[in-house]
Amino acid sequence: MKRRNFIYIFGSAAALPLTARGQPTARISRLGILLYSNSKADPNMETLRSALRDLGYIDGQNVSFEYRYAEDRPERLPDLAADLVK
């Protein structure tokens, strides 16, 4: 066996156990929320957040909420929905 092949085969095998293995990262789910009004005018927003919190979904920890507001303009809804899907 040539010296270069020996170093290549055994050198790379020796380096394998030294690679860092981090903890598996928890995947954060994203929830898209499309509203006809705005966040201040919608009375159900706090109810929704509270219900999701009770189910264990905490914004920024295991779920990310993506809000889009049409602000009482129905013509904006298709574009906002497409933006959420992207």
Notes on the protein architecture:
This protein is an alpha+beta fold and 86 residues long. Helix content is 37%, strand content 16%. It has helices spanning 3-15, 45-54, 77-85; strands spanning 29-35, 63-69. A two-stranded parallel sheet has the order 1-2.
How would the blueprint of this fold be written?
Layout: H1 3-15, E1 29-35, H2 45-54, E2 63-69, H3 77-85
Helix content: 25-40%
Question: SSE string, helix = H, strand = E?
Answer: HEHEH
Distance between the termini: 54 Å
Strand arrangement within the widest β-sheet reads 1-2
Characterize the overall form.
flat
User: How many DSSP-defined strands?
Assistant: 2
Main beta sheet strand tally, sense and closure? 2 strands, parallel
Radius of gyration: 25 Å
Low-confidence stretches: 10-16
Contiguous helical run count? 3
Strand fraction equals 15-25%
Which structural category fits the helices and strands? alpha+beta
Average pLDDT, rounded to a whole number, is 77
